Amino acid sequence: MKNKEKKILLSAPRGFCAGVERAIEIVEKSIKKYGAPVYVRHEIVHNKYVVDDLKNKGAIFVEELEEIQDKSRPVIFSAHGVPKNIPEDAKSYNMNYVDATCPLVSKVHREAENLNKAGYHIILIGHQNHPEVIGTMGQLPIGSIDLIQNEEEASNYNNAANRKIAYVTQTTLSVDDTKDIIKILKNRFKDIHETPKEDICYATTNRQMAVKNIAKKCDIFIVIGSRNSSNSVRLVEVAKKSGCPNAYLIHSQSEIPYEQIESADTIGISSGASAPEILVENFIKDLKNRFTINIDEVEIIKENVVFKIPKKLN
Description:
Layout: E1 6-12, H1 18-34, E2 38-41, H2 48-57, E3 59-62, E4 75-77, H3 85-92, E5 97-99, H4 103-117, E6 121-125, H5 131-137, E7 145-148, H6 151-156, E8 165-169, H7 175-188, H8 202-215, E9 220-224, H9 230-241, E10 247-250, H10 258-262, E11 266-271, H11 277-290, E12 293-299
Parallel strand pairs: 1-11, 1-12, 2-3, 2-4, 4-5, 6-7, 6-8, 9-10, 9-11
């Protein structure tokens, strides 16, 4: 017997952003144009469902160019961006490459380069070992950019050489956490240079705002996304900080917390920017099989951003 009706507050916008849609389209169009296989350096976006789907269509995923046996095949760089030496290596191998770096990540790369040319030492606010951070740091000569991950590191940062400094940020951070880190840096370094427009991307900001908007009304909050997806992990943190401590990330290996769902009246649902909508639909279908469900989609803003794909694929 199904329980009493449960309310789902479905967060919107959620799921794919324009950068992710563009990256997936680049892989699909490359397979269509060049035939299979095409190689992709690093997961094109952080989602197992997407990666598996592209593998079935003819994409082979590698971590480094050296792993590619047949260098005559095209290689695609992931949406997260790559260090400068990677396209150079591809050229030295005479490889045909397509860059699927999100344009908003490329914007941060250009900012960092321009600031470096203008004589600034760069601070990058981001998470160590995330591919986007590796890509951004790899735009500049070693020693000209430092990573700060949290408020403690911001408080202890030492500008020993008394250089003029500027900061840029990873595009998928928590908006609130980043504000706190920036506040510390501005208090400590009065002349620190900031870019006119913030680097956290519109999609990250919108998805976090949408979660914030409904979290306090929810007994449990579910974010569908991957463990290695920075923006998905941030959405869980935002839900917890915004009034729903019972927040979970559901990924491909997750056990779904049915017991907690059973005892909840209102369930919040969102998905990370690299999670396809079918995963949300499947999750809701599963809940409908177990419970009586009433869905209310709560949209805070319409997104209509589209990024063009490289001309060579048209």
